[in-house]
Write a structure and sequence with these properties.
Helix content: 55-70%
Structural class: mainly alpha
Number of strands: 3
Shape: globular
CATH superfamily of one domain: Glutaredoxin
Radius of gyration: 19 Å
Number of helices: 13
CATH architecture of one domain: 3-Layer(aba) Sandwich
Distance between the termini: 33 Å
Order of helices and strands: EHEHEHHHHHHHHHHH
Length: 287
């Protein structure tokens, strides 16, 4: 058997991990040409010392290869590496400067911190929504992360990641585990409402940026394989089941931003992408 070209560190629960998965399938890789290793995001194993040695940020995905001096830990860099070593097919990074600039603009748009799907997944606008997230499994996820950060941080006090992420996640965990709603919750709820205003504007701006039939024109590019995981994760986090059902996402955003709707171009683009084999393989359901 041939030696795999690279190892992809991934997890089903990581939205950005599916950027390289989509690239792999768009590029026509054979499964024997690479290997994957599951990290364990829901259990907090992305913070394990072994994984942090690979990715000091504790994020997923990561990629290692004998041809690389150090691991790749950014989804854009990983996508470029996989694409550059593709066995067949056109590149997802075209050489035309104008089109490449458009692709970069679209990718940068969905990677903005202010448009993070953590808003939809982790935050809440009121006590009722927070309670639903607690019982729906998000509270367990946040708690698992905190336990692992504390455990690994105590054993590895010199690792910067633990010193930074433990208090950050700890604040969120405190909100989830508190017996009563306090002033800190009210601030959290207010920030969430403000976040949805920004998020709605970001979805509208994305709709205006799409060129169709795909994100940057008539061919699938790296822009498409970044937008799909970002949008799919938000659709799933709001309770979407069917891959074509935007209603739960629309309804949740509209609670905070009355009159909001998912743009027509976004819906058409999503329908076009959902017909591709790479999409069908990686998104038999939303996640």
């Amino acid at each position: 058997m041939a030696t795999p070209k690279f190892t992809l560190y991934t997890d089903f629960a990581s939205q950005w991990a599916y950027v390289p998965h989509l690239v792999i399938d768009e590029n026509g890789y054979d499964p024997a040409e690479y290997e994957t290793k599951q990290v364990g995001l829901l259990e907090g194993e992305n913070f394990s010392p072994a994984y942090v040695k690979i990715n000091p940020n504790g994020t997923i995905p990561s990629l290692t290869s004998p041809t690389l001096a150090k691991p790749l830990v950014d989804s854009v860099d990983i996508a470029k590496y996989i694409d550059a070593n593709r066995p067949s097919g056109p590149s997802l990074f075209p050489t035309d400067p104008k089109q490449l600039a458009k692709i970069d603009q679209l990718i940068a748009h969905v990677h903005q911190d202010k448009l993070s799907t953590n808003l939809v997944l982790l935050q809440a606008s009121n006590a009722q929504e927070l309670g639903a997230k607690k019982t729906g499994g998000i509270g367990t996820f946040v708690g698992n992360r905190q336990r692992k950060l504390v455990e690994y941080g105590a054993a590895n006090p010199d690792v910067p990641l633990y010193a930074m992420r433990t208090p950050q996640n700890g604040q969120l965990n405190d909100l989830y585990t508190a017996d009563k709603v306090g002033p800190e919750h009210e601030e959290f709820f207010k920030a969430t409402e403000e976040g949805y205003q920004v998020y709605a504007a970001g979805l509208r701006e994305l709709d205006s940026m799409l060129e169709l039939p795909f994100a940057a024109g008539d061919k699938v590019t790296a822009a498409d394989v970044h937008i799909v995981p970002w949008l799919a994760h938000a659709m799933w986090a709001t309770g979407g089941k069917d891959v074509g059902d935007f209603e739960p996402l629309r309804a949740r955003v509209a609670k905070s931003v009355p009159g909001f709707d998912v743009g027509e171009k976004t819906r058409k683009w999503w329908a076009n992408m959902s017909e591709r084999e790479s999409f069908k393989k990686n998104y038999p359901k939303l996640h």
